[in-house]
Structures are given as C-alpha cells and as structure tokens.
Amino acid sequence: MPESSGEIGRPLKVLHVDDDPMNLRVVQEILGAFGHQAVMACSGQDALERLAVEAFDLVLLDIHMPGMTGIEVIEKLRASPGPERNIPVIALTADVYSRRPAEYVAMGFNDFVSKPILVSGLMATIKRCAGPAPAPALSRAS
Fold it and tell me: Parallel, antiparallel, or unpaired: how do β-strands 58-62 and 37-41 relate?
C-alpha cells in the first residue's frame, strides 16, 4: 500500500471542523503529509452545509465550538435523510475528562482523538475508521 496515503491505500478527502484556525492548519499539514486532502470548516453549520452537497471520506469534528457544538452536529448529521449520515466521524477534543471514548461512540461518533493531536494516534484512528474493508476470505477446495 502506498506510504503517501498513510497506509490506507488511497488518498482521502477529509472534512475537518474546528473553530480554531491554528488547529485547522495543523491538521491540514498532517493530512497533506500523508497524501490526503483536508477541507476546512470553521463551524458546525458550515460542516452540515458542506456535507449535504459534497462527498467526503471522513469527518474530523471538534466537540467544543461556539454556536453549534460537535455533539449537536453529530446529532443532526446522523438524523439527516441523505447518504452523508453514514460518513465516519471522529470526535476531536482537549476535554478528555468529561466523557469516555465509549460515550462519544454511543452518541454516533465512530472514534475519538484527544488534543493536542499526536500524528501517530490521528493516523491510526483514521485508518481504523476509513481504511479499506478487509478482503473476504477465500474458500478452499478440499
């Protein structure tokens, strides 16, 4: 598999939602280094509007944002009638004490990454959520 795509096997188009421009820039640089495209959204409303009209492989969603929190975004996204409701979404937050990762999954997120973001942890989580499906087992003739 190509090293440039972070061992996922294909370049991904990732929507990164965060109200902090520095966080957006850092993640854009990380994803770009692995051959992925980061599309930035600075609010939950912007993210939902983009998801309704544009296809993405994955969403990185900050939890604490003004206006519409990441939790409100995931609720609206999962309740939407379009195909975007099934997109893998990874929660991003510096608040690692108020909720356990399993609670984020129960809310509709596919996984969780804490801030500050470690490159290895982010890429491993992306691979788990958007990596290729395992190949079906081949049946053997006896």
Answer: unpaired
